[in-house]
């Protein structure tokens, strides 16, 4: 697959197993390069692993990660979403898209806690994305 001239920059909030699978898949697709993706995780060892393994910048500065991306992908546990949204909401501008893979967190929740003009998409991948064989549903 040829790389398009410009792909949207991805800010990945949460670099756990699913987040890692998404990074791996984006890079393997050929459409994305390491400098098109920035990751965030609260666990420093996880950030070091992501940076070392995929050469993707991963830091514990969520605001920096969000400011980087055209698409902000939330890949944290559902009970961590309110804290993450509180931290990123000031940096979410109308030119950004929020994509959430947090199960059970409704679109109404995001609409209530984000600036009004932010488009939100809910995505539900299955665990097979970690081996690049996954299936995803969208809402």
Per CATH, the class reads Alpha Beta
What is the fold-level CATH name, i.e. the topology? Rossmann fold
CATH superfamily: NAD(P)-binding Rossmann-like Domain
Report the major sheet.
7 strands, mixed
- Strand order, biggest sheet? 3-2-1-4-5-6-7
What's the N-to-C terminus distance? 27 Å
Shape: globular
How would you state the average pLDDT, rounded? 87
SS-derived structural category: alpha/beta
Helix and strand sequence: EHEHEHEHEHEE
Structure description:
The chain has 139 residues and is an alpha/beta fold. The chain has a single domain, classed as NAD(P)-binding Rossmann-like Domain (Rossmann fold, 3-Layer(aba) Sandwich), CATH 3.40.50.720. It contains five helices and seven strands. It has helices at residues 17-29, 44-54, 62-68, 81-88, 107-113, and strands at residues 10-13, 37-40, 57-59, 71-74, 97-100, 120-125, 136-138. Strands 3-2-1-4-5-6-7 form a seven-stranded mixed β-sheet, sandwiched between helices. The chain starts with 9 loop residues before the first strand and ends with a strand.
């Amino acid at each position: 697959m040829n790389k398009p001239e410009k792909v949207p920059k991805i800010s990945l909030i949460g670099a756990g197993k699913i987040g890692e699978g998404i990074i791996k898949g984006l890079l393997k697709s050929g459409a994305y390069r390491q400098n098109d993706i920035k990751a965030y995780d609260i666990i420093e060892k996880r950030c070091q692993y992501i940076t070392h393994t995929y050469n993707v910048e991963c830091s514990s500065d969520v605001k920096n990660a969000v400011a980087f991306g055209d698409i902000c992908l939330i890949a944290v546990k559902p009970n961590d979403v309110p804290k993450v949204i509180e931290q990123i909401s000031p940096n979410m501008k109308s030119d950004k898209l929020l994509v959430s893979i947090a199960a059970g967190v409704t679109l109404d929740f995001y609409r209530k806690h984000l600036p009004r003009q932010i488009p939100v998409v809910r995505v539900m991948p299955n665990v097979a994305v970690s081996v690049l064989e996954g299936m995803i549903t969208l809402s």
